[in-house]
Design goal:
With about 425 residues, the chain is of the alpha/beta class. The protein contains 11 helices and 18 strands. Strand 1, helix 1 and strand 2 form a beta-alpha-beta unit. About 30% of the residues lie in helices and about 25% in strands. The longest helix has 28 residues. The protein folds into 3 domains: about 280 residues, Metallo-dependent phosphatases (Purple Acid Phosphatase, chain A, domain 2); about 60 residues; about 60 residues, no CATH class. The structure holds manganese (II) ion. The site of manganese (II) ion has 5 residues, from loops.
């Protein structure tokens, strides 16, 4: 049985450095304390290209070195926009008590006695090296642009899925051979499984996803360690390959508002017939969302703060107001109420007022025609309006006012309410 610490989606960069480094640091401490045999980082170690002198680069290198001083490390290439090609190459030269294997192309690698990595060279081993302890099949992020240049952009996404399914099926015979000699097989990849849930709880269902659970299980590896989706989740299957498990470790920390659930790393225990994984939570930051329909009510905000406490938390306050109320929102007071929070984000949404135009109204000859056109544009009842207009034309204003003030009913006027509000609120909402 082999024990693997599986970390993913560290997203080191200036914006995430505090969270990523705190969580990754604690996770490494735990993995070392539990005496794991090997560590896997399944992609997106960085959030974007980093300069070598960036504090994020120095912290990431230092942390991976700490891991490599404890056990062999396997780093997989993640999404290119987060981890530009070549980012991981520097880790090959990291040194440390154990080697770091960088998987930036499709291939297999064996964990050998003494913690050595032995790579397949080609996409798969023809013959497994004798004495291997575990077999890793690595499928780093597929460059869809390369596939598109070969098969055309329209079918590239589908072609990626088909080719990956063929590749995974191609690994199966090698995994079977390993299993026959009691050696566990472990797949490592970075991509989207059809039907998985994002960190915001949204199911990913479309046709441009890299894998299905079926194609992943079809590789007949005992374990499949995945990166890319930031929410931890997994799938199990009993088959002739034994008890198989696929799991996303999820991101190491909480990098966005609205991400529910624990963050952490996975501790895998894999042998030639079974795989189990356990999430070990990291002290990820606390995020709180406070939402107002309308102007933020400072009293209820203060009550919420007093009840839940926001000390050290990352708080997001959202509200939706009409355009005319937009200047009535007291941002300074909201920030003051949340002074104990680590970070405060204020997001106001303004519902714009859209005035409908009554086309051609200025060219109409009579006032009655204009009233009719206006009534039509605003969907108001024109009859009482025209009656009022007729009375205004025929009667002195003083007489009308006197009659209204004495409450004397006027049989000539239909009793309908005057439309007061003429503005039409559109449902479209703009940030
Ligand atoms: Mn990611």
């Amino acid at each position: 049985m082999i024990r693997i610490a599986h970390f993913s989606d560290l997203h080191y960069g200036p914006k995430n450095l505090t969270e990523a480094d705190h969580c990754f640091g604690v996770a490494i401490d735990q993995a070392i304390a539990r005496g794991v045999d090997v560590a896997v980082l399944s992609g997106d170690s960085t959030d974007h290209a980093l300069d070598l002198h960036a504090p994020s680069a120095e912290r990431l290198v230092t942390q991976v070195r700490r891991l490599a001083d404890h056990c062999p490390v396997l780093m997989l290439q993640g999404t290119f926009s987060h981890e530009p090609p070549g980012t991981l190459s520097i880790f090959r030269a990291l040194g440390g008590r154990h080697p770091v294997h960088v998987a930036d192309r499709i291939g297999q690698v064996c964990l050998m006695p003494g913690g050595r990595w032995q790579s397949s060279g080609a996409w798969a081993f023809d013959a497994l090296p004798p004495g291997l302890l575990a077999l890793f099949s690595c499928v780093p992020t597929v460059n869809k642009a390369v596939v598109a240049s070969v098969v055309g952009a329209a079918v590239a996404a589908e072609a990626v899925g088909e080719q990956l399914a063929a590749l995974l099926a191609g690994f199966a015979p090698v995994h079977r051979r390993a299993r026959a000699t009691g050696v566990p097989s472990i797949g490592v990849s970075h991509g989207t499984v059809y039907g998985c849930l994002t960190e915001h709880g949204v199911p990913m269902a479309g046709f441009d996803h890299e894998f299905t659970t079926g194609t992943l299980f079809g590789a007949e590896a005992q374990a499949f360690l995945l990166g890319h989706i930031h929410a931890h989740q997994g799938w199990d299957q009993e088959s002739h390959a034994g008890r198989q498990r696929i799991a996303y470790a999820g991101s190491i920390g909480r990098f966005h508002h609205g991400e529910a659930g624990d963050k952490g790393f996975l501790l895998w225990e894999v042998d030639a017939a079974s795989a189990v994984s356990t999430l070990h939570p990291t002290p990820a930051r606390r995020t709180i969302d406070i939402v107002f329909q309308g102007k933020p009510d400072l009293e209820s905000l203060r009550t919420a703060v007093a009840e839940q406490g926001v000390a050290g938390a990352h708080v997001r306050v959202r509200w939706t107001v009409c355009e005319e109320d937009r200047h009535g929102v007291d941002r300074a007071a909201i920030e003051e109420a949340l002074a104990s929070a680590e970070d405060v984000k204020l997001e106001g949404r303004i519902v714009p007022i859209v005035r409908t135009r009554a086309a051609g109204i200025s060219q109409m000859a009579s006032l009655a025609q204009k009233v009719k056109a206006w009534a039509q544009a605003t969907q108001a009842d024109e009859i009482p309006l025209l009656a009022c207009l007729a009375e205004l034309m025929a009667t002195q204003p003083q007489d009308i006012a006197t009659r209204v003030l004495t409450g004397e009913p006027d049989e000539d006027l239909p009793s309908a309410e005057m439309p007061g509000e003429v503005d039409v609120l559109e449902t479209a909402v703009h940030d």
